Amino acid sequence: MKEIMKIKLLILGLIVLTFTGCKKFLDADPENLKTVEQMYTDPGYAQGFVTTAYRVIPGYYNNSSVATDEAVSSNVNDGFTQIATGSWTPSNGAFSVWNQSYSALMYINQFLEESNKVKWANDDEVSKLFNLRMRGEAFGLRGLYLYFLLRNHAGFTPDGQLMGVPIVTKFLEVSSADFNQPRATFDACVKQIYLDLDSAEFYLPMEYVDIANASQIPAQFATITQNPAVYNRAMGQLHRQLFNGLIAKSFRARTALLAASKAFQSPTNTATWEQAANAAAAVIRYKGGANALPAGGHTFYDNRTDIDGISEGINPSEIIWRENRQTNNSDRELQNFPPSLFGNGLINPTQNLVESFPMANGYPINNSNAAFNIDNPYSGRDPRLRSYIMYNGHPDLANFRTGSQSGSIDGINVRTNSTRTGYYMRKLLRWDVSLTPGAVLGRNRYTPRIRYTEMYLAYAEAANEAWGPKGTGPNSFSAYDVIKAIRTRAGVGTTNNHAYLEECAADKIKMGELIKNERRLELCFEGFRFWDLRRWKENLNETARGMDVNGTVYTPITVETRSYQDHMYYGPIPNSEVLKYNKLVQNANW
């Protein structure tokens, strides 16, 4: 990554181009931009095509939680809030990745068509390895962008066909190409993603590490070089956080889980739960199995020793892929700390989410064995509740009060940046940050792109559907094994030998609901909930609720209603594209 950051990109500063204009950079004045042919002798310029594709990777950390039953925003004009409350149209692009993705695909496709002509280095072995790595990154990124396009824009057309998006694997010349292309089937898109990820795995090492001797060179590169120094130059630790083989396996698991889900069931979709389980299992096996779940993974955002000790692109044990570390940063805390800590209280967790945290004994709070105390509702709960949500009387902040009559500036609707639900988000934040005027203190942080816990949860969901709670298929671990590891790590059910988990293990449907709830808790506020509810085809219109706590009086409140319609389980093609191209059929009822 350090090498990439040093490249002088001649395309730096360009506006991200639309699907129809991705070649404009070649039509600009020649004194400003290079021609394609100059890629062949300028490897930095050639590499810039792939670097540009990295710049617009869609992120999960986008506050989309407020478009679900997970949270609301203290800013009622938030774009995701507007979508959730009735303003989602094909022209409202908050959930669209169309233009940025097709723009990136044009850069990627042109690179793939030209990279074999580039002289990457004077040393022939180095040149070959650089070309392989860069092509592997490009294929991987092409699969990545097609996955996001499919997740955000696939759906059923008015004639009942399950369709994906146009598959573009060639660079399209503006002067001669036909941009009026129909959507490919959903199944064809999934298979194209797999094909690109296959290529990425073929060209890339599993991870970028320096080696000490020739015997450590991966087999696919051993015929090119037996020199460790040459291998390290092209495939070593300098390139950490670039797309690698493990990331390719992870996106295969994401794609397979999406394709097997209820929302995309169709006679034309050949995806199975077995495929999804085995794809996720490959990542888990690489990690070391069900019992290799990273011990502190559920508090990755505040594992201070891990975060502060990151160097040379190394990942903490929970992380498969991440963005670069930020130093002395307090942006997220400024957004989300409560007003008493000089924050803007943006993301307000709901009572709906709070109720989904079980008791520490593992039972849901509405279960007769839970020992839930309605007059002391935060006591004896799943330890993740304390870690993820700031509630009235939270033990980590003295005299923290959120009631509307509490007299605190943190109280419900006291200020425009006070909570609307009676809760503030704690997860994702470093609580050693200070926003005190005159004593502002930022801390180091990173934003994950893929966590191991996500892969474990994907396996649990798919394996349960494929083989039941304790079935393993061709693997050595089950959905039960994974969920037990996750709950044990969280400190849930450990005092009664996981009695509730054992109860669920006898019922596939009950186990499935438990798995979904564990996914909800472990991945809350990370941008998964909106997509999970849609692919499960579960209720998008659950009213967001809160709790007004004043003294010993707990008053449930209605905070925000949702206004989704059934066709919104599938996102629209942007209206601007449908108007331009008559072969581009919109999803039904948009």
UniProtKB/TrEMBL annotation:
Domain SusD-like N-terminal: from-to ranges: 65-210
Pfam family, one: SusD_RagB
Entries under PROSITE patterns matching the protein: PROKAR_LIPOPROTEIN
RagB/SusD domain residues: 318-590
Domain of life: Bacteria
Keywords, in A-Z order: Cell outer membrane, Membrane, Signal
Cellular compartments annotated: Cell outer membrane
The family this protein is said to belong to: Belongs to the SusD family.
Protein name in the entry: RagB/SusD family nutrient uptake outer membrane protein
